[in-house]
Structure formats: C-alpha cells, structure tokens
C-alpha cells in the first residue's frame, strides 16, 4: 500500500453528522499518510484525541484566533429597507431565499444568491460578483452554505430566521433553533480578515503585540508614523424577537463533539449475507444495526434510512452484493424524484454490464436543455447537475462502466453556465412562474417507476412540445413539484379535470 506524506481532512466536526458522519470517521481512521492535518471546530479536539489514543497516534493541537472583531448589533434589521451594502441575509429555506431576494431587488438593488443546491461554479460566480468592489451588486442572500468553503467580503450577517429544518436520529424532520456551532460559524463570516470592510485605528500596545507575535525584524514604529486598519464584522437578526436568542448563542462556546458516526462496511454486510442468503440488503442492514454493539463512549451508529431507501429502490435489479452496497452509499438527495429515477436507471444499466456512455446519458437526461425560464426549470437543472455528480461519483468506483467522466465534466460546465444565468435572473424566473411561462425543461424526462418507502410511485414527464393550459402555476404548485409531492403528469391531469369542471359550470 502506498503511503502519502500528508493528507488533509476539512470540516472534521462533520463526524457528528447523523447521516453522513461515518464518511469522515472512515477517512480519519483509514487514511494512510505520514501526517494527517484536520481542520474544523474546536469542539472536535477532545474526540479526535480520544480516537487517536485508541490507534496509538500522536496528536498536536494548534488553535487560531480570529484576527478581527465581531460585534452583535443592539437592534434587528426589521425591514428590507434597512439593508446596507455588504449585508448577507442568511435564510434556511429556498422559499425564504426567493422571497427575500425578490423583495430586495424590488427596491432597486442587485442581489447575489448562494444556496447548497447550486453547482460549485455558480456559487463561485455569485461570490465573485458580491466580492468585487467595482460591481454594483452589494447584497448577498444565502443559506448556511456560506459557512463552508467560500471566501466572502461580508460586512454584516443578518439572520433572517434562527429556525432550521433538521433530521433527527430516527430520520424524522424537525424544526429547531440553530446550534451554537452553526450560529458561530455563520456569524463568523462577517468582517473576515482581508475583506474590504475595515475600521481605522489600533492602539500602540496592540501594534507591539502584533509585531512581537509575527517576529518583526524592525523596531515598533511611533504612533504618528504608522496607520493600521482593523477589520470588523457585525451580526444581527431580521426579526427583533430573535436578537436576544442570537446574543445568547454567540456568547457560548461550541458544543463539544462527543461521538463519531459509524456505518457497516461492505465486508461486514457480506458476512451477514453469507449466513442469511435470502435477506435483502435493507433487511441485512436492519439486522446488523439490531445485533451490533457500539462503543457508545466514542461512537454512534449513523442513521441508515437513506441507505435502506436506495437499497429498496434497486432490490429488484440483479446486482452483486458488493456493487449493490456501493450504489446504496451514493450521496444523493432522496427527496429529488428525478435524481432517484436516474439512480435506478444507472443501476439497471450496470446490471446488464453495459457501459453508461455519453450518448446513453444524453438520451436519458433529455440533453441538451434550454435556459431556465421559471423556478421549476431552474430546480430541474440543479437536479440534472446532481445526476452528473452521481455519475462522476460512480465513475471513481466503476471506471469501466462509467467511462465518460471527462465528457460529463464538460457537460457540467455547460449546465453550470445555464444555472448561473438562471440565478442571475432569479426575479424574472419567479415572475414567469406566476404567469405560466415555461421553457419545457422539466418535461423532457421519460417515465420510470421506482419504490419510495415501499410504495410504487411514478414520476412521469411529458414531451418537449406539450404545452397544457395553465392551471396551478402559483408558488404552492412550485413547492409541490420541487419536493416531488406533485409530478408534472399529475399536474397535467389536474389541468384536464379543471378544464372539464370549468366547461360544466
């Protein structure tokens, strides 16, 4: 086995994630390297030290202090009229993203938008537009996606809400106040060192400390000979009633991370399958979780509902157990019907031992696409981008049958450009959604059946040329379609029924 000199794991605190934490735990315990550098929250330090004690590794802890001040304002924003240049309004739902960005643009201001479902290139393009001092876009509307991996020139973070949807250990959706860790990470994006927002002035004592800390080779200058800028960030809430809660959250230290997530390995599942040859993969997972004993002083068993969901979906597809296991580990959003449909098609094609060529992929995606004209079109293009990500994820594991990785990356580049255009014109897409304008993007999908929570549901798409009468083009319809609770085919049937009822009366 080849040993690397250095490996880096970012966001190591993600070991606590109830669904995907096992991926970080496996990386930490399985990487073969001379040195492993971990980056993340201070709350993860004790757990990492405890884990490394069990493996006989040496741990060196280096703590880095924030180089700028962060001030919690005494008053809430209260209204979008109070938005200032350099503000970032943080929302925890797409609906809030849409309504806030539209409200700000209605006041004649340009807005950059960043949320988790956007491709990396689109996020970077929006970030660059907001960061550019010469660009007229001075306001950012974003989710907590800004907390990881983006350098943003934010003067003030405004929490539009402090309530965020989450999934508990049982896989149930909950609405909870954000954690101390989340509040600190998001608020900390304001006034970061090196941004354009600055405040002049610093004491001589502070200058001396800085020069000493950085090993200056020169004598400390006199105050009148030296001018230094101190960067400062601000944070507040949109609603006045949330401000006290935010101050309380930011006054605390991050919650210590006490346990790392685990997940059954392929080898363990194969062992169970040897003794229980007639059990499905989903059942094997349940049996393993029931019978296994976890060292609960350091570890917990991650939620396996997403894994079992995918396992049930492809149970009827003839696959070797190891390949079935790998497919079910794919990091996809099971709430996106189109992504799930393509996942099933990938598994079927793989089971035939037939390569998923670029031509096959384009036919099944409905490629090429038109630029989005409605929010639903944009949501669908984001889903297509996720499908291409899934293809690339599988190509690393099954190179022979997923041979078009480089071409798929090119497709992602084209798709990224379309999505960027859609996000840039977000307000127009919202208006088009309300007036029934559509590019037909979402209707390019052919039909396929797959299992959802052990019940068959069909997600049917019409042809590109079909333009049914406009019925149900409002925001509720968009939400139902985006969440997969209402399919385009179901909407078309509703339109027909509505037309018939209108004629009768």
Automatic annotation (TrEMBL):
The keyword ATP-binding applies. Pfam families: DEXQc_Suv3, Helicase_C, SUV3_C, Suv3_C_1. CDD domains: SF2_C_suv3. Keywords: ATP-binding, Helicase, Hydrolase, Nucleotide-binding. It catalyses: ATP + H2O = ADP + phosphate + H(+). InterPro entries: DEXQc_SUV3, Helicase_C-like, P-loop_NTPase, RNA-DNA_Helicase, SUV3_C, Suv3_C_1. This is RNA helicase. Residues 75-270 form the Helicase C-terminal domain. The gene is SUV3. The keyword Cell cycle does not apply. GO terms for molecular function: helicase activity. It comes from Periplaneta americana.
């Amino acid at each position: 086995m080849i040993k690397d000199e250095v490996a880096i794991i970012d966001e190591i605190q993600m070991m606590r994630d109830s669904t995907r934490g096992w991926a970080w735990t496996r990386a930490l315990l399985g990487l073969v390297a001379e040195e492993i550098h971990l980056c993340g929250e201070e709350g993860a330090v004790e757990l990492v030290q405890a884990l490394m004690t069990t493996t006989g590794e040496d741990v060196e802890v280096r703590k880095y202090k924030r180089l700028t001040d962060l001030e919690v304002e005494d008053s809430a924003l209260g209204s979008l009229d109070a938005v200032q240049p350099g503000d970032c309004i943080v929302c925890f739902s797409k609906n809030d993203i849409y309504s806030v960005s539209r409200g700000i643009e209605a006041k004649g201001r340009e807005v950059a938008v960043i949320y988790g479902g956007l491709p990396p290139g689109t996020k970077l393009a929006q970030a660059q537009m907001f960061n550019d001092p010469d660009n007229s876009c001075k306001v950012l509307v974003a989710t907590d996606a800004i907390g990881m991996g983006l350098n943003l020139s934010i003067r003030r973070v405004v929490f539009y809400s402090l309530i965020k949807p989450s999934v508990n250990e049982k896989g149930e959706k909950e609405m909870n106040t954000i954690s101390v860790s989340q509040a600190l990470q998001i608020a900390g994006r304001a006034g970061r060192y090196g941004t354009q927002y600055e405040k002049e002035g610093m004491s001589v004592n502070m200058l001396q400390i800085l020069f000493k800390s950085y090993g200056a080779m020169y004598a400390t200058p006199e105050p009148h000979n030296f001018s230094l800028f101190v960067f400062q960030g601000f944070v507040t809430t949109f609603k006045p009633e949330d401000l006290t809660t935010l101050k309380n959250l930011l006054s605390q230290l991050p919650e210590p991370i006490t346990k790392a997530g685990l997940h059954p390995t392929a080898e363990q599942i194969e062992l169970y399958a040897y003794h229980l040859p007639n059990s499905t993969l989903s059942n094997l997972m349940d049996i393993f979780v029931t019978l296994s004993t976890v060292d609960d002083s350091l570890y917990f068993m991650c939620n396996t509902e997403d894994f079992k969901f995918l396992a049930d979906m492809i149970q009827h597809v003839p696959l070797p157990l190891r390949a079935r296991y790998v497919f079910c580990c794919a990091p996809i959003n099971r709430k996106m019907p189109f992504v799930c449909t393509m996942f099933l098609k990938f598994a079927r094609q793989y089971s035939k031992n037939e390569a998923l060529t670029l031509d096959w992929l384009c036919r099944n995606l409905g490629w090429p696409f038109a630029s989005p004209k409605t929010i639903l079109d944009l949501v669908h293009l984001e889903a297509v981008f996720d499908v291409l990500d899934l293809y690339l994820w599988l190509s690393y594991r099954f190179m022979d049958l997923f041979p078009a990785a480089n071409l798929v990356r090119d497709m992602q580049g084209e798709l990224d450009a379309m999505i960027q255009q859609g996000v840039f014109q977000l307000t127009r897409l919202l208006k088009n959604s309300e007036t029934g304008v559509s590019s037909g993007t979402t209707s390019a999908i052919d039909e396929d059946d797959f299992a959802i929570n052990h019940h068959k549901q069909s997600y049917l798409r019409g042809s590109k040329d079909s333009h049914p009468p406009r019925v149900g083009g409002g925001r509720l319809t968009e939400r139902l379609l985006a969440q997969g609770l209402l399919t385009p085919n179901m909407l078309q049937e509703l339109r027909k029924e509505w037309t018939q009822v209108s004629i009768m009366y």
